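Handoff note, outgoing to incoming analyst
You'll be picking up this chain. Sequence as last confirmed:
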Amino acid sequence: MTTYTQPLGELGEIVNGSRPYSLRSRLLTALAADREQSAHASEDPARRVHRRLRLIVDNLPTVGELFRDPEQLAVVGECVALADPPLYMAVLNHYALCLGSVVTLADDPAVIGGPWQALTSGRAKGVFLVTEVGDASSHLGIRTTARFDPDTREFVLDTPVVGAAKFSGVGGSGGPQSAVVCARLVVDGTARGVFSFVVELTDAVGPLPGVSVSRSIGVPSLPLDYALVRFDGVRVPYVQWLRDRARIDADGAFHDPLGDPDARLQRTLSVGRILWATLPSAVAAMARQSAVTSLRFSAHRRAHGRLAPGARVLELRNQQHALLGALAESFALTCAGRTAREIWARSRTAAACGAPARRTDGMTFSPWTAVDRPLAVLKAVTVRGAARVAAECQHRCGLAGFLHPNLLDGYHGFAHAFDTAGGDSQLILLDAGRALAQERGGGAGGTVPLVDVPADQPGWWPAAARAQEGCLRDELQRSVRRGVQAGRTGLKLWNPLLDTAHGLGEAYGARLVADATAAAVEAVHDPELRSALRPLAALYGAVEARRTAGRLLAAGTLAPAAVRALPAVIDDLCDRLLPHLPLLCEAMGAPSGAVPAPLGADDYAAALYDFLDR
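Most recent structure output, in case you need it:
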């Protein structure tokens, strides 16, 4: 059986983390073997997801060990995302959100009993039910109720109106499913905030009593069996309440040490940190694979245009700009993914040491930046970046980019879908911009010293991104002050400023990614590797500056002459990078044979025929 290893060294550590986990090779090997064995099998999609989820569970350490190490969780996400993007959606639900909620919020998960054992063994697929279909920003106004019954000490779960139906990947008849359901707790007629409850949804036959699951709803960009779920008097045992130190005494008295509904909602949804800490690494892996396979495809593919018949497509300057730019952005996303894991690891260490919770943003458009601003924003900008990379690679590979076996459509579909899933990126960036504008102090402001920081250097874009954030923050703070002085509050104050707030959130995210990229490059010691990564980081900055040139010019961050010079800068950086492509593609792509895409083969047509004949 083939096993898959990745080159180590400093670039390998940036791409794959500091420790060479055997888990990576084990998972890739198991997924590839299963792919070969089931290539011609006819299988119900829902049952296939259950089976492959069980395969993953069988190859992982215990849940406790897995959640003690963010790096391992990230490895799981990267491997599954590369091999099977829709399956990764199911894995996120099962591990990061469902089991993550139990591990985070239960005093002792083992007390939950049967549902916990079924989830950890893979006998049941776990899902996370929070989004309700009837309203925007439903997380801030959850209508599903869990009424406490003092006679039986159970909770009665109800969907009061059609608009409170939950949405998730729970369709089909693949087997048992259990959910973590976010619901508004009602004790003695009083709403006590949003808590999570472990609820068994289906068995091998179908929905359990009181649970209604609609017919499957198609989502073409990320194909799984999605459905709407409603509850009608479903009784949930007290031990399946993820109470997180809250309690209801024998006399029915309710106690919550947090003491505030917003704080409780924030805590209930803090499971988002697990997703945001690991998702950027997975979408970065998708972006890297998109760029590497597209570069290999273009390097071997001959064109018959009249300017240069027989020339390889990668010789064309516009193709270099697009695909080397995609490789540069995928590298920046990789650095951002590492930063996300480090942020989560530091927060876990601080919490374990009893450090007080850090100040959080208020909840205006969504709860997500209140849970963790930098992690939520990194989620938003990395999924958008990965979608941009995959879409550009699809376009630059022509017909091949859109064929399902080449996986670019799967990578793009996943990243594009997660612009909304996992915390809506639009709302995250709006809240981040609003919060930044309301903090004391301003940004750096002003323009980048173009003479002192040349545009072909890796430090240029971090300086530009920091200046852009400062300019937009200063502008929004001035607008808010003027509105307040005019007596405007609430929506009347913020409605005219929403685009500016979103732009500030984007600028903040761009600065986080730029800083992560610069820090990773500056930490490299090997001279040969530095000579490859410095122009790669600089190319990322130049391409980003060209993409966002209108905003940079409007804010006064860049001068028109600097923008006009960018094409020549990009040309020069591409020339500097081309000799390093073999090294970069080897380290940044998936191990040979681990991902079932013909696109990057030396002989693409033969590889495609071989794939289709399996």
